[in-house]
Amino acid sequence: MKYQENQKYISLKIKKARRLFILSCEIVVLSFLSILPVTAATEEPVLSVVYGQENANQWRGISDRLQTIGMKYCVISLNDVKSGGDWGDRRVLFLPNVETLTPTQAIALEDWMSRGGRLIASGPVGSLSSPGVRQLLRSLLGGYWGFSLSDTEQIQAAKTKIPEWTNQTGLFGKVRGGVVIPNDMGTESPAVWNSKDNPAAVVTTERSTFLGWRWGTDTASAAELDNAWLKTTINHYLTALAPSNRTKKIVGGSQSCSTTVAAAPRGQGGSSSALSPSFTPPKTATAPIPRALPMVKPPSSQEAIDQLEQAVRLDVAPNSNEPIDHNQAIALQQELENLIGRVESAQLAVLADAANVGETISEKKQFSRDLNTPQAVKEQPTQLASTKLGALAISKDQALAQARLIAKNLPQLIAQKNYALARQQWLVAKTTLWQQFPIDRKLAQPEIRAIWLDRGTIVRAGSKAGLAQIFDRLAQAGINTVFFETVNAGYTIYPSQVAKEQNPLIRGWNPLEEAVKLAHERDMELHAWVWTFAAGNQRHNEILNLNPNYPGPVLAAHPDWANYDNLGNMIPVGQTKPFFDPANPEVRQYLLKLYEEIVTKYNVDGLQLDYIRYPFQDPSAGRTYGYGKAARAQFQKLTGVDPVNISPSQADLWQKWTTFRTEQVDSFVAQVSHQLRQKQPNLILSVAVFPLPEIERIQKIQQNWETWARRGDVDLIVPMTYALDTSRFQRLAQPWIASKQLGATLLVPGIRLLSLPTIGAFDQLQLVRDLPVSGYALFAAENFSNDLQKLFSSTQGRSQSTTSEPIPQRQPFQTAAIRYTALQREWKFVFQNDQLQRSAEKISDFNNQAEVLRSALNQLAASPSANKLLVAKASLTRFQSQFRVLMSQEIKSNSYQVKVWENRLVTIERLLRYGERQVQSRPL
């Protein structure tokens, strides 16, 4: 009896506690893993879940988990999203495993979140979208999917302080997922992988949470762990609101709430069967029957891409009072100090060059800015007047002093929780420093200055005269290497005896023939830029008013040459290009014959292979590619197994299949290198590649360019390190710049000009010049504005001197000697203006050692020989080993500049290594 009375008493207490739920943290914690209090209190769903083509084969697993939770939700069809309101009026949106969003959808998502919406996402969200979309999603999600992990790993709590709401034991366990790269600011990583360096598995912000695995798939994680994370995250975002706001809907959101998915796939769910082809493969190795592609309009230039790039918010948002943690504060300081270093490095180059020719540069002349120029008004579109810091500093010394003071005081402002002012001051310092770049003086040394001259710009030129105007602008701007788009979407830009059809947009002239003449007349190199395994393009079809499914002229004539995904599609879902089968010997012979025609009939200086890969795939999501007729037959002959019958869960077989496809690309690069250089020994071969981590890249696109570099198959590696700000550009490029796996091949980072401010582009160039690389490549000519042309002409344009500047890929020893002479000028200038009271003896010792190296490099440049190369390399090694000792005082006062000098010595070392390989393979 007493027991029953106690039970009644306890029941009454629980009822009272429920009424005071928001005030009881203990009950919230206990409720996380059982029911959702907020949804229990209302019949209205608070969650919308996005359904699209890419998660359709996982929908059963997703919906089963949601049903297990007892969660009421609305279904949003991704195809129907055209505006912010289309994301619905529910407070929380769940975006599971969707890798392709259009620019319109991404902008709509930002609009929806700005109205108070909260986002939960899982898997490689947006990873197959355009660069602008990926950039915006990084801002919205607080990070991005870096790469997939090769094995199942343990998710564990981060060792740093984690948000209280994630401190739940049910959130951790074994998962197969990927590394999430958090943004530097405004992001927390409550869960990490139990692997080297403990990379982030989950990142969360005030408005979003990003789960680093494919939620709802049994191959990725257990249902219990999936459910725990979803319930906990939803509760967090709802209980963070005032009680009166929890059931309020998003203003302007669609009130429609569909609870089902029409024609949702059944019976696949999250099981491994989703990883296998859905068709029954024939017993013999033949190409799968291609499925008709949906008649969707491919993305066009009218589809908000320009608006999207402008809408991307930088890491430091003005006027935001969002908290800044300790690590973010350090990152802010470091980025500002690096920018100070880049500005000083550029200024030193100008001053040292002027001193060498006996020119006096007044501070006013050197650093004044025309504030009416676009780079002054467009580079940082924040309202600087609202910072209340007064007018911008106008002199070099004032600007640097102000920036250093801001960098020094940032930790104090952040400790005082004055986050908005900290951000405002940081942005003011950045803008002020940008205005101190010496953009009116020549400061560049010999380097590769390349640009991709795209098919659209060639077509618009319309004639030799129009093309000549383009080459004039590029030559005046100091560009010395042009990647000229020669094969695009299966069409050649010139009338070919090998290819099926010249591009129909070209009428009555031969752009390649004219371009070679125009480039050589201006002492520029012209490299034919060719699409390798990409055979067509839906976007090009739209321009030509063709059926979107037209595979291009070559595959239309030779359908057996086509490649397919595991569902029988020639063009993977969410992509726009069909691909050749690299394993098909007829394909390889056709491409080799075509390239041989280009390099023998036209006097091109080089050939650049683009799309030298398979299309993007994600094996763990059941999206794979490479099932062409020839590939299947060859693999079955090697292993006895048709590859359509295996899945990633069969580790050994799957690795063999991945290796087989990778080797098709590797062997073709080697074949191109060997065969074309027999015809043209001095041909420069380059490749445009993705800067993904090696393991991820091989799994996703079978592109192993480190191997091509080590073997000496290629001369230039051009990674597409596209970013809208310099710090992100550095993070993308740094791993490859520091790589020891490239042998004697030169690395040339790519810079994307689209939507990049003029002075922002210059900042990225200055970073390149401060790092150990030999140049850069600009994408693309269609975005090479008049403002950029003016700035480039001033800082790297051709002088009136009659001597032409060497091009590194063609004259590496001469380039090394001139670059070293420029280094000596900088050291001389620093010593002459020495504030450190260095002894004359130390200066003399340094100059003597430096002079030994100068002499060796000059002799090598004047008359290359094996013996002189050996002497130059030995002299450089000795000098590098003593450099830090010789520069011990500068390290204390300006460590950034000393590092820049070390990097430039490494560049010289790499030029000597590259030149040595050139001499050995192509004797002078």
Question: What secondary-structure arrangement, pairings included, does this model have?
Answer:
Elements: H1 2-19, H2 25-31, H3 37-40, E1 47-51, H4 59-69, E2 73-77, E3 92-96, H5 103-114, E4 118-122, H6 131-141, E5 143-148, E6 153-157, E7 174-175, E8 178-182, E9 188-193, E10 200-204, E11 208-211, H7 223-239, H8 305-311, H9 326-356, H10 363-367, H11 374-378, H12 396-415, H13 419-434, E12 448-453, H14 455-461, H15 464-476, E13 481-488, E14 491-492, H16 511-521, E15 525-531, H17 538-543, H18 553-557, H19 585-601, E16 606-610, H20 629-639, H21 651-679, E17 684-689, H22 694-701, H23 705-711, E18 716-719, H24 726-737, E19 746-747, E20 750-752, H25 758-770, E21 775-779, H26 786-796, H27 812-832, H28 840-862, H29 866-886, H30 888-893, H31 895-921
Parallel strand pairs: 1-2, 1-3, 3-4, 4-11, 12-13, 12-21, 13-15, 15-16, 16-17, 17-18, 18-19, 20-21
Antiparallel strand pairs: 5-8, 6-7, 6-9, 9-10, 10-11, 13-14
Helix pairs in contact: 4-7, 5-6, 6-8, 9-12, 9-13, 9-25, 9-27, 12-13, 15-16, 19-21, 25-26, 27-28, 27-31, 28-29, 29-31
The Rg value, from CA coordinates, equals 30 Å
Please count the beta strands (DSSP E, at least 2 residues each). 21
Number of helices: 31
Helicity, in percent?
40-55%
What attributes characterize this protein structure?
disordered N terminus; 21 strands; 924 residues; globular; 10-stranded mixed sheet
What can be said about this structure in brief?
This protein is α/β, with parallel strands linked by helices. Helix content is 45%, strand content 11%. Strands 12, 13, 14, 15, 16, 17, 18, 19, 20 and 21 form a ten-stranded mixed β-sheet that branches. Strands 2-1-3-4-11-10-9-6-7 form a nine-stranded mixed β-sheet, covered by helices on one side. A two-stranded antiparallel sheet has the order 5-8.
